[in-house]
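Today's session is about reading a structure prediction critically. Students often jump straight to the picture, but the first step is always the sequence itself: look for stretches that repeat, for charged clusters, for runs of hydrophobic residues. Only then move on to the predicted structure, which in these notes is written as discrete structure tokens rather than atom positions. Here is the chain we will use throughout the hour.
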Amino acid sequence: MWQGKRIYLIGAGKSGLAAARWLLGQGAQVCLNDKKAAGDFKEEEQAELAALAKKGLALELGADADPVGWDAGLVVSSPGVPLDQPILQEARRRDIPVTNEIELGWQISQARIVGITGSNGKTTTTSLIGKIMADAGFTPFVGGNIGKPFIEAAPEMKENDWAVLELSSFQLAGLLSLRTRIAIFLNLTPDHLDWHKTFDNYTAAKWNIARFQGQDDWLILNYDDQLLRLEGEKRLEKGEAYLESRPAVGGPKILWFSQEEEPEAGLYIDREDWIVHRGGAGRGGKDARIMPAGIFSVPGRHNRENLLAALGAGLALGISPYSLRQSISAFEGVEHRMEHVGEHEGVLYVNDSKATNPASAIKALDSYDRPILLIAGGDGKDASFDKLAEKVAEKAKTAVLIGRDRGKVEEALLGQGFSDIRMTDTLEEAVAVCQSLARPGDMILLSPACASLDMFSNFEERGKVFKESVKSLISNQQR
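Below is the predicted structure for this chain, in token form.
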């Protein structure tokens, strides 16, 4: 399949290098492009690029991509490159497929995919499903938009292997054939509009998660999200999907989850705070209690959404309620997502660096009843901060702003009459300002509502800087 095929890779990051290694080993002709010049790479990266070049890799470093000029038969682009780039549009006009490393990993492995998307909550849900499956005896690969790139594991995976993939809108936009055996769509709010240009484009990219599903597959949807409910019900009406036990009509089985209502088929929380599974039409809508919702220790109403979605995946996989309860009760959350860093002199420090959009930060603010000193700001991705400002005015006592778009956040806050705003140039300085203002019973919350790339290499680095700053301040106070 790959022997002699001319493949053009855009982006020499971890996934690009992994793809180049594997494709060269399969006899493909490969060109790797990156805007960074050779001297801008780390020493170990330069060494690997040189080694791959000796094996036949063509390198275009410090240059704009030109797959058409290289006569590519396939373009595999980094998720950070918008698909409306003129050179990629020209490639598609010439019938050159343009995709990404997620699709390439699927084509290599044909592994069984559990795909998780949504504007918020993907990382927690992905991690929780990975734990549920591992505890039940599966050996899933867990990654995608978090952790290890799928392409690094795909060459060792077979058709019966499982991959649990967090899938961003960037990755979903470039899919050509990837089939999710279980697709989870958590929620939908405007995000990444600087990349997708319109909310309709963003929405269309997200729905690619279910594009290639068949009648043996599962689509797990948030019944409380009006946009997802509307689309799911449309698919049922058109015969493109069916509820759990309804006779097959073509599309995937739909399993809803809800905190507010009792859907016809799926999971909900009853008045006694128990999670209940209601069977579909073919099972007469019978209810079965699964577990008390309270055994899930991760705070926040939105995390109950993530819990219900993960349980839906577990049920679709045939995992027993007993095993599900054991996994849920032992889950402690994920790094950089409402992560409790510590408490000192009555002040709680929480790292929510993964909150890269306003909706996610709003959910974090709603998860605590303590007075909050909020650290926010960064690359706003053309998002509106108006709803965030409303929530800050309701829940926070102080906002300390950082990053490129801190002025936009400040403008929205002032528009809500919220004036206790401080501006700082660094995250370390923001932590120090918050610490000086905090009183026993308060919480210092890093929930930026923005991407991190204006100041950091990724949200993980931002979260680590926050944690190091907190630990340093606490250590100095204890001396």
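Discussion point for the tutorial: The chain has a mean pLDDT of 91.
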